[in-house]
Amino acid sequence: MTRSLQGAAVAGIGRTAFVRKSGRTPASMAAEAARAALADCGLTPADVDGFTCFDTGDFARPSQVAHAIGVEDLGWSLSVFGGGNIVTSTVTGAATAVLSGQAEVVVVYRTLGSQTRYGKALGTVEVDGEAQFGGPQGYLVPPQWFAMYCRRHQYEYNSTSEDLGVIAVQERTHASRNPHAVARSPITIGDYLNGRWINEPFRVFDCAYEVDGAVAIVVTSAERAADLPHKPVYLLGAADSNRFGGSIDQWDDLTCMYSRDAAPRLWSRTGLKPSDIDVACMYDCFTFTVMATFEDFGFCGKGEVGDFFREGRATYGGDVVVNPHGGLLSEGYIHGLNHHYEAVLQLRGEAGDRQVTGAETALVTSGAGPFGGALVYGTDRL
Amino acid sequence: MTHALSIPPQPVPDADTAPFWEATAADRLAMCRCQSCGLWLQPPLDRCRACASPTAFQDVAGTGTVYSFIVQRQPSVPGYLDKVPYVVGLVELDEQRGLRLPARIIGVDPADMSCGMRVRAELTGLPGGDFRVPVFRPIGAS
Questions:
Q1: Mean pLDDT confidence for A258-272
Q2: For a tag on chain A, would you pick the N or C end, based on fewer CB atoms within 10 A?
C-alpha cells in the first residue's frame, strides 16, 4: 500500500472579489467562494460531503458555510485553528479525508472580513499566553515579529533594504497583469525606499495588503476529478514543520524559518528539487518571508535572494516564476489560500496575460517563523 | 477616565506565568527553570519539556545580548501610539543560549542600536495597572 497524496486532486477553484472594505460577513463571502468553486467543476452542493477551513480572527464555521449554500447533511467538517502556518495541513487534511473515504468531495476555504486586520492591534487591552510578555512592551503584531527576523538576517548575511525592495517591486509588476489583484500600479525601487516606515527594517511595501474576501478550492479523488470539466491538478506531496511550540521569539535561528526543516522533507517525499519547479507561490505575509523561505527551499544560497531577483531569475524567462499573481503583497491577503488558487490556475494554463508558459509543477508554501509547510501541485502524477 | 488606546496591553497571568509577574512586582527578574536538569524554559511550563520534572522561577542576572531589534515607527499598539519611535529588542539572557525576552531597549538612540549590544534589565511600571515590566538599557549607558 503506497502512502501518497497523489490519489487526490483539486478539481475546482472559486473566490470573491478582494476589496479593502466589503461590508459583508465572512460567512457570506465564504458561501460565494464555495459556490463559485463548485460551479467551476460542474458540481452542486448536493455533491459535497466535506468542508474544512482554518481560522484566526474572522471566520465562518464549516457547518455554517455548508448550510448557507444548501448542503443538507455534511459528513466531514473540520475547522483548524491557525493562520498561514496551517494552510498546508488544512489542504492535505482534505486530501487525506478523501483518500481515506471519510469524504468524496471537500471544499477548503478561507474567509476574511474587515473585523480582522493583523497589522494593528488597536483594540487590544489584555494579552494572555506568550503574548503577555511582548504585548506590554508594545510588541504585539506580525510586522514587528518578522522585522525582528529580517534584522538578524541583515546582521548575519548583509542582506539589504534593496534586496527586500526587489521582491516587492517584482510582485507588484506581476500583479499589474492580474485583474483580480487589489494593488496593480507598478512601483519602482525608489518608491519602495521612499515608502513610510512601519517598523524598521520594514517599510509599508514589505507588508501584505490586507483585504476582505474568500477563496475556496474543491479537493476530490483523482478518479472523480478525471470526470469533471477541468484537467485535474494533482497533489504531488507536502510537508510541514513545527518547532518551539510556535513561539516566534524562541525559534532558534531568525535568519531562516520552518522551511529549514519542511523543505528537505518535501523534496525527499516527492523526489523533486528546486529546479523542477515552474511556479513558486511563496507565502509572503512580508517580503522577508519570501527571502528566508526561498533560501530554505534551496532556490539559492543565504544572502543571495536580492541578486537572484535582480538578475530576473524569479520571473518570466528565469529559473522559476515567483508569485505570478502578485502574492499577498499585491493580489491581497487571503491568508495564503489565494496562492493555491493561483497554482491551480497556472497548471490549468488559464492564467491569461500572466500565464507561465508550459507550467507543470507549482510549489505553494505557507507560514512564517517556527511553523508552516508546503505542497507541490502537478499536471501529472509522479 | 483614561482612553483605552492610551493604555498598553495588560498581561493576563495564568498558573504558569504568575510567578514571573510576582517577581517583577518585587523588582526582580525571574525565569522558569527545571529544578532537576537545570533547563530554562520560556514561555514557562509547570513541568520541564525535557525531563518532566517540576519547575520553579529563579532570579536571573538581568544581563544579556541583543539578538535582534526593531525600531517602531508606525503607531500600532495601544499605549505606544504617541511613543514612536521606540526600540524593541529580543534580548538573549546570559543564563542560556536562546533564552530570550522581547523588551524595550531604553536610553539609546535608535541609530546607535546594533545586534550583539550588551544590555542590563531594570524594572519599570506598566501604565494602566500595577504590573511592572523589564526593560533593558545598554551596559555602560547612564
A1: 97
A2: N
> Distance of CA A296 to CAs A46, A101, A256, A274, Å?
43, 35, 7, 11
Q: Is A283 a catalytic residue?
A: yes
The yes-or-no verdict on residue B119 having pLDDT over 90 is yes
**Residues in B lying within 8 Å of A, measured between beta carbons:** 4-5, 7-14, 17, 20, 42-43, 67-74, 76-80, 83, 86, 88, 90, 98, 100-104, 110, 114-116, 126, 131, 133, 135
* Cα(A8)–Cα(A235) distance, integer angstroms: 6
- Between A129, A131, A252, which is nearest B98 by CB? A252
Beta strand extents in A271-315 (DSSP E only): 279-281
Write out the E strands in chain A: 8-15, 50-55, 76-81, 105-112, 126-127, 197-200, 202-203, 213-221, 233-242, 279-281, 321-322, 361-368, 371-378
CA distance B134 to B125: 9
Q: Tell me, yes or no, if A234 is annotated catalytic.
A: no
Of residues A130, A136, A151, nearest to B70 (C-beta):
A151
CB A209 within 8 A of CB A332: yes
What's the CA gap between B121 and B109, in Å, rounded?
A: 17
DSSP H or E run through B66: strand B63-72
Quote ipTM for the complex. Answer: 0.97
Q: Are A142 and A285 in contact (CB under 8 A)?
A: yes
**Rama region for A210: left / alpha / beta (φ>0; ψ in -120 to 50; rest):** beta
pTM beyond 0.90: yes
**In this structure, are residues B47 and B55 in contact, taking their beta carbons and an 8 Å threshold?**
yes
Q: Assign B97 to helix, strand or coil.
A: coil
Q: Contact A109/A51 with Cβ under 8 angstroms?
A: yes
The single residue listed with the C-alpha cell 523533486 is A272
Task: Show Cβ contacts of residue A3 under 8 Å, excluding neighbours closer than 6 positions.
Answer: none
